[in-house]
Amino acid sequence: MILKGLGSYLCVLLIITFHEFGHAWMASKCGDDTARSQGRVSLNPIVHLDMVGTVILPLLVVFLSAAGSGLANFIIGWGKPVPVNPANLRRPKLDDVLVSMAGPAMNVVLTLVVLFLARLGALAQVHVLIDVGQQLAVLSMFLCFFNLLPIPPLDGSHLVRVLTGMTWSTYARLAQFGFIAVILVIQVPIVRDVLAACTTRSVVLMARMVGF
User: DSSP string of 16-73?
Assistant: First the structure.
């Protein structure tokens, strides 16, 4: 059980790396080189690690889950936030949305890539490639839809901020307590069901696109 959990943790680490890279790359393309100057436009997992959110808490979930503890359901992890200076964005509102959505978009790209590799694994009868590819695909799309929840500081909340005209200062204050709201919201059965349904249907659709 622990080995399976550690395998899932490594998958999540890869997904977070691509997700945060997407944010940093798009911010640079939109005129803000803050992340690039800090080495964040990179697929090196180390530069995107947050000691608490990417290492301690996810590993704690692994061991709690192995022990059958329900506390694992109340713990969430995160990558090291990509620094973005809104003053440097050429089109502040549009670019904020583009930078925010680049992370989930990278999840979709990663899912298509790993499903394609899994398809090659199926053709070559390499079962480990099939299993890892499918696991990565499911986790990647789940994190994609999870990040689209409109709760600060998740990516979906940036779209809400732009649509409602919320100021950055107000958004920052809400984001300070946002993770409490996130933990509470994902305990709601209908929210978990919607995330699961969106994940399953999107993975099935993309699997068909690559020939499964």
Answer: HHHHHHHHHHHHHHTT--HHHHTT-SS--GGGG--IIIIIIHHHHHHHHHHTT-GGGG
